[in-house]
């Protein structure tokens, strides 16, 4: 039996030679490619899913699946890569193929529902999730269930699903931020503020949560910036958000002052704040 490293080197040598010797046919190259893939197992596949350009990963898995059609790990790799590349329509088709495979799992269906949501196909996503066995309890499943309940304005169900999802992950910041935004859209500003603080406790660098927190405070008539770690640019942007929130609430003069502060704070020209202030003063 040949040593795996020697086999890999032989395969690599054959591939390198093909650039110079055009007499080598494509079938031979494909065979060597398949051998390299078999040696590497899931290692190279995992690397392609987490590193590098998403479109390159798509091309890799398309070629690998063409050589070994029907391998569900390669089909999953292609579907995940299409999601990473933000090619939503293609991702939906790819996940549909995965879920039709005899070796597909409940988690594949959850990933299919996620792709449908990314492609703005909410009713289909709900149908797919409803078919997932209730015993399949994962963070991803409940995160999507919460989002769908939000879209249906089923607030109690949404809160329940968000709470379960938070308990099923060690990195709850994204789902806490979504939950807070849900509360914000419902008009529960105090509840939203609490959740945004909780989000930032887990991930203090999430600017979206900082901005949402300022919106929740502004909606309650609180126009002071929260005590948070922030860069000078972030501070200017948050002051701008707070100023616009004040104007929306009818506190125009306070809003103008906040916009002026934002312009003075920003290390560069803050065009959007300057434009807003000019419109108010004009």
TrEMBL record:
SUPFAM superfamilies: TPR-like
UniProt protein name: Flp pilus assembly protein TadD, contains TPR repeats
Family matches, as PROSITE patterns: PROKAR_LIPOPROTEIN
């Amino acid at each position: 039996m040949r040593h795996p490293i020697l086999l890999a080197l032989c395969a690599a040598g054959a591939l390198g030679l093909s650039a110079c010797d055009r007499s080598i046919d494509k079938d031979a190259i494909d065979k060597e490619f398949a051998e390299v893939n078999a040696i590497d197992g899931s290692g190279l596949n995992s690397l392609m899913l987490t590193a590098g350009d998403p479109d390159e990963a798509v091309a890799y898995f398309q070629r690998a699946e063409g050589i070994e059609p029907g391998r569900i790990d390669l089909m999953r790799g292609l579907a995940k890569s299409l999601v990473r590349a933000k090619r939503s329509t293609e991702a939906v088709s790819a996940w549909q193929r995965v879920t039709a495979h005899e070796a597909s799992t409940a988690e594949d269906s959850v990933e299919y529902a996620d792709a449908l949501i990314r492609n703005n196909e909410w009713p289909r996503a709900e149908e797919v999730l409803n078919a997932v066995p209730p015993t399949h309890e994962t963070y991803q499943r409940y995160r999507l269930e919460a989002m769908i309940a939000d879209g249906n304005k089923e607030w109690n169900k949404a809160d329940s699903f968000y709470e379960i999802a938070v308990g099923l992950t060690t990195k709850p910041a994204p789902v806490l931020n979504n939950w807070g935004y849900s509360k914000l859209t419902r008009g529960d500003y105090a509840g939203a503020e609490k959740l945004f603080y909780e989000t930032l406790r887990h991930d203090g660098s999430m600017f979206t949560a900082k901005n949402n927190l300022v919106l929740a405070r502004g909606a309650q008539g609180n126009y002071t910036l929260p005590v948070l770690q922030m860069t000078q640019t972030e501070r200017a942007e948050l002051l701008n958000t707070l100023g616009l929130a004040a104007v929306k609430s009818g506190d125009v003069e306070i809003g103008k002052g906040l916009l002026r502060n934002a312009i003075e704070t920003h290390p560069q020209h803050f065009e959007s704040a300057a434009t807003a202030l000019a419109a108010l003063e004009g």
